[in-house]
Amino acid sequence: MTALRLTSLFALSLLALSFALPSAPTAPARVDDGEEDSPLLKDMEVIQDQLKFLRRNLKKPEENPASLAALQEMQRAAVACKGMSFPMADRAEGEAKAELQKGYKLEMIGCIEAMLQMERALLEGDNDKARELYKTVKAFEDSGHEKYTEE
Ligand code: HEM
Questions:
Q1: Atom 24 in ligand 1: which residue has the minimum CA distance?
Q2: Which of 52, 68, 87, 107 is the most buried (most CB within 10 A)?
Q3: Is the pTM of this model over 0.85?
Q4: Whose CA is nearest to atom 20 of ligand 1?
Q5: Is residue 104 in a domain?
Q6: What's the structural domain count of the chain?
Q7: Is residue 12 part of a domain?
């Protein structure tokens, strides 16, 4: 066997091996449909992140300055969401659309009111009350999504 034939045989077996071996596992990425998150989704995620932070932090009164900063950011995002449209309303028309928009806004207002009460409780140093109000805000997540999202 010539040196040339040996080399090409070697190259061929390497190639075969590369097909036979399983490829390196790729990171489990979230489904990417090529579209960027809408401004509404981005701000909803801000609310979610700050709520997660508050769930742990409200137990620690010495951390109240950080909790108040999280609340401020959460309220900013919620007020922004209140002013945005959402897919279910975008798809509706006429009277039904107007009803959806009004209901969504009222629900967001209730949610923001609970956030403000939570801020008041924290400023008054009442962490137990703030923790109760955490549950009220969280309940708005369930009822808001039940009424105004389709998945
Ligand atoms: C208060 C706590 C809330 C949290 C933590 C929260 C969190 C979220 C998150 C993480 C998403 C994205 C879900 C996904 O990617 O599939 C989302 C979507 C959505 N949320 Fe909220 N949410 C809250 C309250 C509300 C309220 C009160 C309403 C209605 C008044 C609402 C209406 C919506 C709508 C319409 C969407 C879908 C947006 C879209 O598909 O483009 N959410 N929310």
A1: 141
A2: 107
A3: no
A4: 145
A5: yes
A6: 1
A7: no
pLDDT grade, residue 28 (50/70/90)?
very low
- Which amino acid appears at position 110 of this protein? G
- Residue 73 structural domain: 37-148
Q: What pLDDT score does 27 carry?
A: 30
Percent of the chain with pLDDT over 90: 75
Q: What CATH number corresponds to the domain at position 80? A: 1.20.120.10
Alpha-carbon dihedral angle through residues 76, 78, 80, 84, given to the nearest 10 degrees: 180
Domain assignment present for residue 25? The answer is no
Assign 144 to helix, strand or coil.
helix
Check pocket membership of 148 for ligand 1, CB cut-off 6 A: yes
Vertex 93: Cα angle to 82 and 113 (nearest 5) = 20
Question: Which structure tokens are listed for 38?
Answer: 């809408």
Q: Is residue 1 assigned to a domain? A: no
Average pLDDT over residues 63-90: 98
Q: What is the pLDDT of residues 32-62, one digit of tens each?
A: 567 899 999 999 999 999 999 999 999 999 9
